[in-house]
Every structure is written in C-alpha cells, then in structure tokens.
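Private note to self, pasted from the team thread so I don't lose it. Backbone tokens:
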C-alpha cells in the first residue's frame, strides 16, 4: 500500500496525518498545494471536502480529515493501533482527539492568518518544496491574494485572535492535564498524541506564543513527536493581547 498525500505548507493537521502514516509504516508521496487553491484542486481530484490532509491510497480510496484518517488507518493497518483496545481508554483518547481537532487546532490556523496578513514575509519560512511547480521564493512572492482570502475563510479577525490568546493558557493546561492523566504522552503514541502535538509544535513557531509554551510538559510532548517543524513568525501581535499568556508563563 502507498499513499499520495495532498497538503498545505506548514499545515499542522497535515503533519498529524503524515506522522500517522509513518507510524503505520505506510509509504507516501507528499504534494504541497497553496491554501485556498487547494479547494478547487482537491475537488478536481475527486475529494468531497475542501481541506488537507487529503489522502488517496493506491487502490483509489480517498480519505480526508485527520479524524477519518486515524480511523481508516487503524482499519487498513491494525498494528500498531492508533486507539487503545480498552473501551474507557479509547473513549478518553477519542475525546482528546476531538478536542484537539475542534478547539485547539484552529488556534494556530487563525494566528497564522492574522500574522501573515500583517506581514507576509514569514510565509516563505514555511515553504519546504515546490508549490504547484513554483519555486518557494516565487510562491511566497505571489501569496498575497491567497493570504487575504484565507484570512477571511479562517475568520482570523482581531477579536477572534485576541480571544484565542486569552483562552490559550487554559488550553495548554488541558494538554498538560491530558499528559498527567496518561491519555496522551504514553510510550505508544495514539491518535490524540499526533493531533494535539502538531498544534502545540506549530504554536512554538510563533515568537509571540513560544514563551508561554516552553517549559511546559506540552512543549516536551510536541517536540518529542515533531522535533523539526519549518516556519518562524516574529512578534506581530499587539502587546496587550499577550498579557494572559505572560501571566500564565509567570506562574
Ligand atoms: N480539522 C480538519 C480540517 C483541517 C484543515 O482545516 N486544514 C486546513 C489547513 S491547516 C485546510 O485545509 N484549509 C483549507 C484552505 O486553507 O483553503 C482536519 O483535522 O483534517
């Protein structure tokens, strides 16, 4: 079995999907597509949904979204499992994975949308390979209109990003609690490890946020699973928005 993975540069759910494929020993080819343009691109390739990761297995089967991918991979390649066999433990991992997907995952997505609209130069630092045949340099230089549309699609407004930053300390506490409880962070990684770790790791690429993450168990967890993660966003958020993070880093 082989997989073709469609991704967006820097996308954390794509990194989740790739790590799950690697855990299962499924070889893959990765094709990076720009944000926003991925929508018609995926539709033209027979995918029903607009988002990445989007995977086509070599038997033609198409799977999208990290939570569908984790389940499909466990069905196709049962060992090593991405979910525990014990029903209570499985329910805890599923709940953590769902929270990671629905609540935690959008935070760095909106922060990226906000930051790149203010200054698109850091976009180049996320580009690791050619994008629709364009060199990383050309892709970064022409990214302005897509960043503007992505900002709107992701609702990366001032209010939403400020709200995310206010809630981030509690979210990081939740990741630390999940580690403490052993739902994630065990010797055998599960679907929630990959889901949550990728989000924490991407957050660490933002200078504004990294100090609030570093030193937490959540940071060790993320770097254990994602030691390298391209991309760097210098400070961009207004100082007062960071006050809740600074308070949490100080305690
Ligand atoms: N929550 C879903 C969706 C992931 C998602 O929204 N991916 C973003 C990239 S991080 C995307 O495909 N956006 C479409 C776009 O930028 O046009 C999952 O975990 O697979």
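Design output:
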């Amino acid at each position: 079995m082989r997989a073709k993975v469609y991704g967006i540069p820097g996308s954390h759910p794509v990194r989740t999907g790739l790590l799950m494929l690697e855990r299962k020993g499924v070889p893959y080819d990765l094709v990076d597509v720009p944000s926003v343009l991925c929508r018609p691109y995926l539709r033209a390739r027979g995918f029903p949904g607009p988002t990445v990761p989007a995977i086509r297995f070599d038997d033609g089967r198409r799977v999208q979204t990290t939570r569908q991918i984790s389940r499909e991979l466990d069905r196709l390649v049962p060992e090593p499992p991405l979910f525990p066999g014990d029903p209570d433990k499985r329910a805890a991992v599923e709940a953590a994975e769902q929270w990671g997907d629905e609540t935690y995952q959008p935070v760095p997505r909106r922060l990226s949308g906000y930051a790149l609209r203010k200054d698109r130069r850091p976009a180049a630092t996320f580009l690791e390979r050619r994008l629709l045949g364009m060199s990383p340099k050309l892709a970064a230089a022409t990214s302005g209109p897509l960043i503007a549309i992505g900002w709107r699609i992701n609702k990366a407004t001032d209010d939403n990003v400020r709200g995310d930053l206010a809630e981030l300390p509690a979210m990081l506490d939740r990741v630390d609690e999940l580690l403490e409880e052993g739902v994630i962070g065990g010797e055998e990684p599960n679907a929630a490890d990959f889901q949550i770790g990728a989000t924490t790791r991407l957050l660490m690429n933002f200078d504004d946020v990294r100090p609030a993450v570093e030193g937490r168990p959540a940071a060790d967890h993320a770097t254990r699973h994602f030691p390298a993660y391209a991309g760097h966003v210098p400070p961009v958020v207004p100082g007062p928005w960071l006050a809740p993070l600074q308070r949490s880093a100080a305690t």
